[in-house]
């Protein structure tokens, strides 16, 4: 087994040496091209397209949470809060919910005759990012002074608070008979994205939705890649490694952590706004604690801190959750004469997957380069100790 | 011509602690200690284990806030300043138990030391305009210069810090401290775990730092050979209080110091 692994590593090294230096760029270009032409191979409103869109939106969230948890090492268990805020940004600024207002900016001809605030989806996307970044800063300012597990507890509570505010917001009056949220009734009839020249997005043709969220993914991916190799990215890793040493080297603790938290929040908000318009409804029931854990599972399965891992983790769990379990394997137990459907045990399946990954590959599917090096070094040190122990014991007798 | 720049402002060259006290609950770790570190000198801080030396260091670098007393860097009161701000003012330190960032390479560790001297913020990092690219390039090049200056071989510069030898880890830590372009350098037991020859080399190196980089060095040290060889002044702490201060020769013969180290003769 070990020999096989060593052989594989050797081949990988050899392949790396033979490839020209531009191959990673070429690979990235190829992947982007595949991503763009992908919808043409599937019917425009198939279940697979639907699952793909949701999976890509999950990947965006996963990348956002990866900045917080993976880069900066802040365990955030309330990420659903930014999904909710992003979705409500769409509910507020892209529907007839605030019916006393009449604001229209670059929206479809139909929407521009309706009451309410109707902004172009790109503006909503930017607005959602800003609202979530500000919210992230406000919640982070008092909490990020805490360490490790305490941050997890406070963010967990924050996620729950936002969920409760979303439910009870229908009793919070903001004037003119309008309320803050529509609670469990949901803000419905939200605007679909509209772009002059492209037209209005409909659920009969999912391709434009896909390209839209794919473009968001590329932007978020670009920001992630740039940040990782920057002054800020290094500072996050330093804080994650050793807080005392990092501040002693001149890294401002709270400010640096806040930036990670706000950036992660902004990405979650963008994805949330997309989900708001894609699901055509913003309902308080969508924002459950389990969703925070779901996104965290994507980051961990992909490999904590790894950008490509976060993308793969998000896509994988997205497909499993929205395609494999409900569409492909749902009737599997029935075929074996069992009286249940797979969707009824999906949390059990996710738990099982997590356990499998943690046992077989604790560093995740695509571990970050640093962690891979670190883990192999630790294993080597562990092996060395194992060799030494019997020797010293022998010397003692 | 040394590859390392001399500190920009000569104002940040003298460090003073005035009647500094630190209490942890009922425990008085440092009790009414005053200390002066003259410009371009090497001052040693000695004392038995638990005397409060590292606590004093932690107050000077802002990790602890003194319960009473003041700390001045030049004319500036830094008693309540945050540690990262104090680093920006020009105090850098190393740690008794080496605290490198294990998952980063030696070069990256030293680049972290330059954090306070860099300007790239969030948008600079994302959009990477030419000045940010230049800054990154210069920071990296300078990190290599500093590593060479402290004597880390070129071949290990890109290895993870956790994989370096003990001696190299100590050297990288010094390079990381120097990267913040300090006026005052605080070294916490730099010779711990070194053999006499290495200690001798480090003594020479500290003199070089003072003379070439015009640094002021405050040193916690147990190795008396190093202390007597390198320092202009010595301050002795025991049980949180200052019991002696002066030139190495005076301190060595001070009966209170001998008592503190060897126990009292009945």
Summarize the structure.
By secondary structure, chain A is mainly alpha-helical. Chain A has helices at residues 2-18, 23-37, 47-71, 80-93, 121-143, 148-168, 207-228, 231-241, 243-248, 253-278, 289-302, 307-328, 332-335, 346-360, 369-396; strands at residues 94-95, 102-105, 116-119, 173-175, 178-179, 187-188, 194-195, 199-200, 281-282.
Give a written overview of the molecule.
The complex is a heterodimer of chains A (397) and B (266). Chain A has a domain at 46-288. Chain A has helices at 2-18, 23-37, 47-71, 80-93, 121-143, 148-168, 207-228, 231-241, 243-248, 253-278, 289-302, 307-328, 332-335, 346-360, 369-396; strands at residues 94-95, 102-105, 116-119, 173-175, 178-179, 187-188, 194-195, 199-200, 281-282. Chain A has 397 residues and is mainly alpha-helical. In chain A, strands 1-3-2 form a three-stranded mixed sheet. Chain A has a two-stranded antiparallel sheet with strand order 4-5. In chain A, strands 6-9 form a two-stranded antiparallel ribbon. Chain B contains ten helices and ten strands. Chain B has a six-stranded mixed sheet, sandwiched between helices. In chain B, strands 2-1-4-5 form a four-stranded antiparallel sheet, with helices on one face. By secondary structure, chain B is α/β, with parallel strands linked by helices. The longest helix of chain B is centred in the middle third of the chain and has 21 residues, at 130-150. The model of chain B is unreliable at 5-13 (pLDDT under 50). The A-B interface holds A 222-223, 226-227, 230-235, 237-238, 241-242, 244-253, 259, 263, 370-371, 373-374, 377 and B 61, 63, 82-85, 87-88, 92-93, 95, 99-104, 108, 111-113, 115-116, 118, 120-122, 124-128, 132, 135-136, 139, 160, 162-163, 176-177, 180.
Provide the fold topology.
The complex is a heterodimer of chains A (397) and B (266).
Chain A: H1 2-18, H2 23-37, H3 47-71, H4 80-93, E1 94-95, E2 102-105, E3 116-119, H5 121-143, H6 148-168, E4 173-175, E5 178-179, E6 187-188, E7 194-195, E8 199-200, H7 207-228, H8 231-241, H9 243-248, H10 253-278, E9 281-282, H11 289-302, H12 307-328, H13 332-335, H14 346-360, H15 369-396
Parallel strand pairs in A: 2-3
Antiparallel strand pairs in A: 1-3, 4-5, 6-9, 7-8
Helix pairs in contact in A: 3-7, 3-10, 3-11, 3-12, 4-5, 4-6, 4-10, 5-10, 7-10, 8-10, 11-12
Chain B: E1 15-24, E2 27-37, E3 42-46, H1 53-60, E4 68-73, E5 76-77, H2 83-89, E6 91-93, H3 106-113, H4 122-127, H5 130-150, H6 166-179, E7 184-188, H7 196-213, E8 216-220, H8 224-230, E9 233-238, E10 241-246, H9 248-253, H10 255-262
Helix pairs in contact in B: 3-5, 3-6, 5-6
């Amino acid at each position: 087994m070990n020999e096989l692994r060593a052989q594989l590593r050797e081949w990988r090294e050899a392949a790396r040496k033979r490839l020209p230096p531009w191959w990673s760029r070429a690979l990235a270009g190829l992947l982007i091209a595949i991503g763009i032409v992908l919808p043409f191979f599937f019917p425009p409103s198939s279940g697979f397209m639907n699952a793909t869109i949701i999976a890509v939106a999950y990947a965006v969230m996963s990348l956002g949470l990866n900045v917080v948890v993976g880069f900066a090492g802040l365990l955030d268990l309330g990420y659903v809060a930014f999904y909710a805020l992003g979705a409500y940004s769409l509910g507020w600024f892209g529907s007839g919910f605030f019916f006393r207002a009449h604001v229209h900016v670059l929206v479809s001809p139909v929407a521009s005759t309706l009451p309410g605030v109707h902004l172009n989806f790109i503006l909503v996307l930017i607005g959602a990012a800003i609202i979530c970044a500000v919210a992230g800063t406000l919640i982070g300012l008092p909490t990020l002074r805490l360490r490790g597990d305490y941050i997890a507890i406070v963010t967990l509570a924050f996620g729950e608070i936002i969920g409760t505010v979303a439910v009870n917001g229908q009793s919070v009056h903001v004037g003119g008979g309008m309320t803050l949220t529509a609670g469990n009734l949901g803000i419905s009839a939200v605007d679909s994205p509209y772009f002059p020249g492209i037209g209005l997005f409909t659920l009969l043709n999912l391709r434009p939705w896909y390209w839209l969220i794919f473009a968001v993914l590329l932007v978020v991916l670009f920001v992630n890649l740039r940040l990782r190799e920057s002054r800020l990215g290094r500072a996050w890793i330093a804080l994650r490694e050793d807080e005392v040493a990092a501040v002693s080297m001149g890294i401002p603790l709270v400010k640096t952590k806040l930036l990670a938290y706000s950036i992660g929040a902004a990405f979650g908000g963008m994805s949330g706004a997309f989900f708001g318009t894609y699901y055509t409804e913003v309902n308080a029931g969508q924002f459950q604690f389990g969703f925070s854990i779901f996104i965290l599972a994507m980051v961990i399965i992909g490999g904590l801190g790894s950008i490509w891992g976060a993308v793969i983790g998000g896509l994988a769990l997205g497909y499993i959750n929205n395609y494999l379990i409900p569409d492909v394997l749902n009737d599997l137990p029935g075929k074996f004469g069992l009286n249940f459907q797979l969707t009824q045990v999906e949390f059990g399946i996710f738990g099982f997957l997590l356990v499998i990954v943690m046992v077989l590959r604790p560093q995740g599917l695509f571990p970050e380069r640093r962690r891979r090096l670190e883990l192999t070094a630790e294993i080597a040190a562990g092996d060395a100790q194992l060799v030494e122990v019997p020797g010293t014991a022998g010397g003692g007798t | 011509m040394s590859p390392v720049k001399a500190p920009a402002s000569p104002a940040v060259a003298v460090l003073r602690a005035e009647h500094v006290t630190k209490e942890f609950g009922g425990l008085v770790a440092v009790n009414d200690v005053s200390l002066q570190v003259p410009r371009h000198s090497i001052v040693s801080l000695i004392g038995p284990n638990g005397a409060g030396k590292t606590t004093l260091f932690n107050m000077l670098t802002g990790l602890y806030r003194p319960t009473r007393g003041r700390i001045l860097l030049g004319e500036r009161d830094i008693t309540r300043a945050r540690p990262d701000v104090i680093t920006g003012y020009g105090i850098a330190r190393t740690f008794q138990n080496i605290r490198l960032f294990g998952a980063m390479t030696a070069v990256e560790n030293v680049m972290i030391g330059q954090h306070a001297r860099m300007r790239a913020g969030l948008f600079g990092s994302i959009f990477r305009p030419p000045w940010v690219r230049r800054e990154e390039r210069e920071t990296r090049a300078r990190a290599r210069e500093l590593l060479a200056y402290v004597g880390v071989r070129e071949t290990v510069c890109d290895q993870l810090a956790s994989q370096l030898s003990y001696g190299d880890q100590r050297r990288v830590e010094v390079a990381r401290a120097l990267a913040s372009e300090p006026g005052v350098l605080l070294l916490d037991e730099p010779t711990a775990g070194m053999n006499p020859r290495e200690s001798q080399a480090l003594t020479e190196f500290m003199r070089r730092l003072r003379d070439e980089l015009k640094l002021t060095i405050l040193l916690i040290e147990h190795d008396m050979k190093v202390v007597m060889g390198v320092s202009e002044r010595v301050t002795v702490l025991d049980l949180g209080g200052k019991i002696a201060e002066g030139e190495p020769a005076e301190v060595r013969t001070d009966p209170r110091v001998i008592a503190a180290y060897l126990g009292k003769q009945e």
